[in-house]
Write a structure and sequence with these properties.
23% of the residues lie in helices and 27% in strands. The chain is α+β, with helices and mostly antiparallel strands and 271 residues long. The chain has one domain: Sortase (Sortase, Chain: A, Beta Barrel). Strands 5, 6, 7, 8, 9, 10, 11, 12 and 13 form a 9-stranded mixed sheet that branches. It has a two-stranded antiparallel sheet with strand order 1-2. It has a two-stranded antiparallel ribbon with strand order 3-4.
Length: 271
Amino acid sequence: MTVLLVLTAFMLAVSLLQPQVLGKEQLNAGRETTVCRNGGRDPWRRGMAKREMPHIGISPSFGAIYGLGEYDVPEKKLDFAGLRRDDNPHIYAWLTIPDTIIDYPIVQHPDQPDYYLTHNLDGSTGYPGCIYTQPVNSRDWTDNHTVIYGHNMRDGSMFAGLHAYEEKSFFEENPYIYIYTEDSVRVYRVFAAYPFSDEHLLLDFHTETRQGYEEYLEMISGVAPEKGHYDMEAAPENGEPIITLSTCIADKPAQRYLVQAVLEAEGTRLQ
């Protein structure tokens, strides 16, 4: 009897030391890989998994390479020629927001404005699509207002991370957005984050003209503080260009969540 008790106690102890393997129902509890009703996987993992991800880190010296030593520019080694050759010919920039998983190429189809709303980097149809701009915007970032679109995926990918700016603390502590091109790094400072209607920001507001742009900025200064967050000190002035990152809001199909930032600095690679 004593031997049996000792053996039983030993087996129980071994079982308690074994790692717990969750069932499929538990692993997926509370998660959906959909935006509203549409499913999909992160395009980086789906279409670009075969390529080594760029090195990402914070290096004070990396910004200095572009004359931006005062900024903690996330270090990235991007081969745009290789990305266009191996992954998608429409890649023309890269977007990174520190303290989020937003770290994606930016694409633009030359003649189908919303092609990448329903197409992935590998050209397949479906979700989550891509982070993209429409051809109404130039690809040299010289427009007064550039709008960047991405789905609000419930698995946290794509532009789901923009909703972190709903928290005032995150809005205040994460002010910078970085856009990389073949020969430059552009530093944008977030000045507004708020829900808005689904109006087309480039067609319904004539920001290509000076008067239209000033009127649009004035509208933001009235709407953003009331509906979300607004940094008056960072707000654009004297015609400084801005970007708007736009994504949908769950259960509110007629609204979009906008994060807007003004160009604060631009650096080109020093020889």
